[in-house]
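REVIEWER CHECKLIST
Item 1: Sequence provided? yes
Item 2: Single chain? yes
Item 3: Sequence as submitted:
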Amino acid sequence: MRILVAEDERDLNEMIRKKLTSEGYSVDTCYDGEDALAYLDVTEYDGVILDIMMPGRDGLQVLREMRRKGIHTPVMFLTARDSIEDRVKGLDAGATDYVVKPFSFKELMARVRAMTREKYGTSSSILQVGDLTMDTASQKVARGERNIDLSAKEYALLRYMMTNSGIVLSRDMIEDHVWNYDYEGGTNVVDVYIRYLRRKIDEGEEQKLIQTVRGRGYVIRADE
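Item 4: Structure as written out by the authors:
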């Protein structure tokens, strides 16, 4: 899952980025509304965290411009304003959620999970493909009775694939959702991480869940 964080308090911005990254998200960050819109114009995000009081354009202006352009990515507002009127204004503008500073990072991560579930139309923290399960709340992954340990990036890749189970994902689609703009790795990064996942998930299993669709990309599915 790829998240955009637009927050002008740089220390808070960095803390949110680190927490999201530790939870397996790919994160881009900026500090004002104009840059947020520039990112949104060129990248499809799974969720956006917007500070309301930002220089350039404030969060409400960014959200209204997003919706005007037909960008329906879920948005969570961060703000120090906690009046009912402010909450109503934010939600009526099209925000998915509204979090008042100061906040608990544990609660923030739970709200981010709920926000991204909304985009993909899922109501549970449990993802399942065949006998492979992922609990996005606890970040536990298992194949049958076997627990699987994954790196943060392996987890992010698997979560994106399981969220889109049965859908063929191109390398570009995977890279756009799992890696951010700061990545400076090789051009075959997707293939490398797919190999890592296959070793941990499919090796020794009769049914192979991660499949290559020649000329198109990869898909995770449990064939009958």
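Item 5: Key structural point noted by reviewer: The chain has eight helices and eleven strands.
Item 6: Recommendation: ____
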